Amino acid sequence: MLFDFDTAIDRRGTLAIKYDLGRAACPDGTLPLWVADMDFRTPPCVTEALEAQIRHGIFGYSEPDAAYTDAVCGWLETHFGWRPAPEWLCLSPGVVTALYIAVRGLTGEGDGILVQQPVYYPFSHVARDLGRRLVVNELANDGDGHYSIDFADFERRIEQEGVKLFILCNPHNPVGRVWTEGELRRMGEICLAHGVVVLADEIHQDFVYGGHRHTVFAGLSESFSKITITATAPSKTFNLAGLQTSNIFIEGEALRRRFKQEYQRFGLSQMGVMGLVACRAAYEGGAEWLAQLLAYLEGNMEVIAAWAERTPGVRFRRPEGTYLGWLDFRGLGLSDAALTALLKDQARVWLSGGTGFASDRGADAGGGNPGSGFMRINFACPRSTLEEALARITGVL
Questions:
Q1: Shortest CA distance to 245 belongs to which of 97, 126, 99?
Q2: What pLDDT, in 10s, does the model give residues 358-380?
Q3: Pairing relation of β-strands 163-169 and 197-201?
Q4: What is the C-alpha to C-alpha distance for residues 391 and 383, in angstroms, rounded to an integer?
Q5: Which label site among 16, 265, 317, 370 has the fewest CB atoms less than 10 Å from its CB?
Q6: pTM recorded for the entire structure
Q7: CB distance 220 to 191 below 8 Å
């Protein structure tokens, strides 16, 4: 069966943040390629399962059963060679919710939280919001758009800044790196040596391209697994973010107990039945849909790459993972405010400003904002939408 990713679906008036909030904040006709959900319908296997649940007509308190757990763990085993034990599973409405629970339950006020900027902004905001101290290990850009880790700085900051928790983003949002096994092992060994807990956000694990392979951090060794909270979800992969279902795996008994205790303090209880139904259906029947989606997204990447090559002042390196491109506009010589105005007000294309991925910086983070001059583009949309957005940008440049 061939799935349709070309048809543009009107999402206006559906309570979609991406479109309905955008209509309030931008002139009509602005193309929103900012928030990271896709403009594709979820697989038919998911909608069919949800329709069956709707026909049943009862939406009471619900808990996952063995079939749900087997579907989630089976997906991880099939696609990444890692099968967590069922008892490791903790549910959460979202990965960001799990992040706040972990930071509040496993660290104290003033403790250091290590992140690698530029990075998905809630990773930095959580430290500010919960009275922890943000510690930044800035990723190194080689000038050609390839980012790497400064391991000496990574360890030095852990040693000197009282770091208790490291938030790992793999695949990395927004720079698109899929960390290699060697890179992950080196970070893990440093964290293990200094008693640092790792929260591994692997929500984009299913989006990997060009011969790269996602490695589950906790799957590298039993020692790593015991210090790791692995955050996964079907929300990015199958466009289910609105159903608020994430699967969090914690092998370490003490970590898992503290996480669950803090979860209860948040006043959280059972998950919504529709999210549980959708998650199981996606993992049981969505593999072929995903394979076709990945091929389509690679085609979208090629469209952006070809556009950047013929557009002076713009550079683009194909991401190794995610469906988010990190566009480098520094060659235009514009301030970030001027760049945002150019794209949003004149081109009517709404992208995510790069400075937002390093807006809360550690007190000892020197230099300028590493996201300055960059924009993140969500290319998980019909190709016609992407081509229109790029043509609009060309028009104002």
A1: 97
A2: 987 765 666 789 999 999 999 99
A3: parallel
A4: 12
A5: 265
A6: 0.96
A7: no
